[in-house]
Amino acid sequence: QLQESGGGSVQIGGSLRLSCVVSTRSYSDRCIGWFRQAPGKEREAVAAIRTDGSTSYAESVKGRFTISQGNTKNTLYLQMNSLEPEDTAMYYCALGGCLTVNEALGVLPEYNRRGQGTQVTVSS
Length: 124
Known about the structure:
Elements: E1 2-5, E2 8-11, E3 16-22, E4 31-37, E5 44-50, E6 55-57, E7 65-69, E8 75-80, E9 89-96, H1 101-107, E10 113-114, E11 118-123
Parallel strand pairs: 2-11
Antiparallel strand pairs: 1-3, 3-8, 4-5, 4-9, 5-6, 7-8, 9-10, 9-11
């Protein structure tokens, strides 16, 4: 139901744009976002966006990543600039209910509805 794309290998300082297409989204699925997981590390929420357009970001990506959604709210994007080796991970989009976007950022990795992931590798 959620399909990510856009991952790849880039050099330090490069950019990538991830996309996520959602096949079905109900009224209660008010928040959607991205989380990532690197080998041997915990899942980390990256960014979330609510249907009202409010956004929330992890401190590690603020100022470098931008989350947005398409007009129909069934497409999600993550523009990633100034990429660093620490950004190397599998990136997943996830969808679920929320009261606030900050709450969503905290629980993104726990949402049941998620995609299969897209790999991002940043190297020198």
